[in-house]
């Protein structure tokens, strides 16, 4: 049997489950990967060569990924683009900062560019667990910024996103069934507790390499945390920049209200090969929206699971 046949047989033997969006997810080395992303993920793990200057943005899906991409793009490119000339005015953040599966082999470059707009040099994003990242990332001085959102709001946001973007011929699961899968740890790039704890522990062990942020904290004091992100990445704001209000200008540009009201994010699709409406990346961006969807019984069970998985870790969540 040749290597290709062996690979096919190995993939066929992987556990498979229906995802909340109606497609298939497969369990690969401890986490659930969308079947359509398995090969690109393996390629990324095997071929990606990280540079010391690389910046990796890590999140669970719908945990503030779009916001984090916009902020970091603006931070690292502030000397290249003034606020009124920012590519964010005409491009969705996901078109400017690629995901891991959109990278060319061995390079932190996107497979495509929107309107020839340069992608962030060395800035890319992932939903992969920490221990599933390519070895070259650990061997390099690549910086990792992880944004964590409380699991209940993250789930509700993800479920709505899936419902809005169900492929033709597929059907999204009802919310109660989808939540049951999440409770069992069966969700893309999950179990969520293992992914969050992986980056949390890494941030404690390697604070100069991994910055762990909470979505809820960022919402409370975005200026403080944008400054913290910039310092961590090696792009600190100068005294003159701070006095001129540049940090505030960046946070305003990248705010939910600002991005969601831009024409490019109201009607366009990011790319013909990825037919997801830009508008679906912007729903509410609030803390505590889960209260509008989960019954007391659902919330109680979630609280017990979260306590069990995170109880003695030192990591806490803000739910309202």
Automatic annotation (TrEMBL):
Stored InterPro entries: P-loop_NTPase, Sulfotransferase_dom
Listed GO MF terms: transferase activity
Listed transmembrane segments: none
Entry keyword annotation includes Transferase: yes
Source organism superkingdom: Eukaryota
Domain named Sulfotransferase: residues: 52-314
Top-level EC class as recorded in UniProt: transferase
Keyword set, alphabetical order: Transferase
Enzyme Commission identifier(s): 2.8.2.-
Protein family membership: Belongs to the sulfotransferase 1 family.
Protein name: Sulfotransferase
């Amino acid at each position: 049997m040749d290597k290709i046949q062996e690979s096919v047989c190995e993939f066929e033997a992987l556990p498979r489950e229906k995802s909340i969006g109606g497609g298939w997810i497969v369990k690969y080395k401890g986490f659930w990967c969308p079947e359509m992303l398995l090969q690109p993920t393996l390629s990324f793990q095997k071929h990606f060569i990280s540079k010391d200057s690389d910046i990796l943005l890590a999140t669970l899906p719908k945990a503030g990924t779009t916001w984090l991409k916009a902020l970091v793009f603006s931070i690292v490119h502030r000397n290249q683009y003034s606020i009124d000339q920012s590519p964010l005015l005409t491009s969705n953040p996901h078109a400017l900062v690629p995901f891991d599966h959109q990278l060319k082999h061995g390079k932190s470059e996107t497979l495509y560019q929107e309107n020839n707009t340069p992608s962030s040099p060395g800035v890319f994003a992932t939903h992969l667990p920490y221990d599933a990242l390519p070895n070259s990332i650990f061997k390099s001085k690549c910086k990792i910024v992880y944004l964590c959102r409380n699991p209940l709001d993250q789930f509700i946001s993800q479920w709505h996103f899936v419902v809005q973007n169900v492929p033709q011929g597929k059907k999204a699961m009802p919310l109660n069934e989808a939540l049951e899968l999440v409770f069992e740890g069966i969700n893309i790039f999950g179990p969520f507790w293992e992914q969050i704890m992986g980056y949390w522990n890494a941030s404690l062990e390697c604070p100069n390499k991994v910055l762990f942020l909470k979505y809820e904290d960022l919402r409370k004091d975005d200026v403080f945390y944008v400054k913290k992100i910039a310092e961590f990445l090696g792009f600190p704001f100068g005294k003159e920049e701070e006095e001129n209000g540049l940090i505030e200008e960046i946070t305003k540009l990248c705010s939910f209200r600002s991005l969601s009201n831009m024409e490019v994010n109201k009607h366009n699709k990011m790319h013909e090969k990825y037919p997801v409406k830009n508008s679906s990346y912007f729903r509410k961006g609030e803390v505590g929206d889960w209260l509008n969807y989960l019954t007391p019984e659902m919330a109680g069970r979630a609280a017990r699971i979260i306590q069990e998985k995170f109880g003695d870790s030192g990591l806490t969540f803000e739910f309202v």
